[in-house]
Amino acid sequence: MQPKLVIAVGADTHVGEHGPPLLLLLGKFDEFFKPAELKLRTDAQTMVSPWSNHGAELLDPMLIRAAVNAASAAVGRLPPAPSTIWLWNAVGVSMALLGAFMLVLVLPEWPPRWDWTRGVLVAFILGSAFFLAFHNWFDLKPHAQNIPRQVIATIVALPLLAGARKLRIRRWVFVALAIVLAIAAGFATQTILVQTNIPLSWLVRLALVLAPAMFAGALVGTIASLGASKFSGDVAMALIIGCALFQLGNAPRTAPEPPESHHFIKVEAESLDAIAGQYVIPPDNIFRTGAQVKIWREGERLMLQATGRGVLQGAHEILPESETNFFLPTNGVELFFIKNNQGEVTGFIHHRTSLPDSEAKKVN
């Protein structure tokens, strides 16, 4: 394939030295990529929307028009007329959510003993309406294997909400907290990209999911408590939070691929010395800012250490499967060393299953 244009939305994409033209589209408030940095790219055209974040870039009319116009120009055709289907989709979504809201408002009074079940019904009606309205837009899919975790999250959230109610913490406080949490998590993503802090990345990921779940849960809980007890609202809010955290939007699980067997051999010291040296990986789709790799021999072992943004930290042994093929057991990476016509090692291919390859050049 020789594409005439590559369009990347909300991504820091690289197509190589001799790749096709590249158009980068992103929002000014993208949480993962800084527009100022991408604008400095000399190998790509960049367009920044003044209002989008990472989640809204695919729905941004400005970015959509830019992508359609660029794609049409690349193949020598006039751009088609703007689509109006989004308008009808918006009308349908609004009617679905409004219908669910009206249905909740006309629910009859519940017996006091079973008042909590009203919260369950309200959460089910509004949650189902949201799911049916948006599942095609955001690829929301329920997964049965997450139901146990959803139940646990709901059970944990319920006493916490009841305790907050006893402390007279109103639901609008949760709305404000969700907004602050989302903003803080957005800023924290920059720290993750710089430091590659795994524990912090899990906390930020949780915050990015918890913030909208708390926001929606507070709204649904307020609606559920209209004409009912506050506990009914707590039940509805806990269900929404539990469902959003562990049920919607997770990628479906697939059967794990059987592990590839590796057979290691002993390689002569001369062959290891020929590989040893300093290597450079230019910026690509795996190493966004590039990486430097040092390889040296320690007795009969070959050691590797990489430096750069997002690389594996520390020194690690690479195990030989042949004189040119090595395996890094720490993260499952395979290194295929390249030789020229004189038999000199000039670089290597960095390969990891299901990810694009990276190519390193030997500089020392």
Question: In words, what does this structure look like?
Answer:
With 364 residues, the chain is an alpha+beta fold. It folds into three domains: 6-74, no CATH class; 95-246, no CATH class; 269-362, Lipocalin, CATH 2.40.128.50. Helix content is 44%, strand content 20%. It has nine helices and eleven strands. It has helices at 35-39, 61-74, 85-105, 116-138, 147-166, 171-195, 198-224, 230-246, 269-275; strands at 6-9, 22-29, 45-53, 277-281, 291-298, 301-308, 315-320, 325-328, 333-339, 345-351, 358-362. It has an eight-stranded antiparallel barrel. α4 (116-138) crosses α7, α4 packs parallel to α8 (230-246) and α5 packs antiparallel against α8. The protein is globular and about 85 Å long.
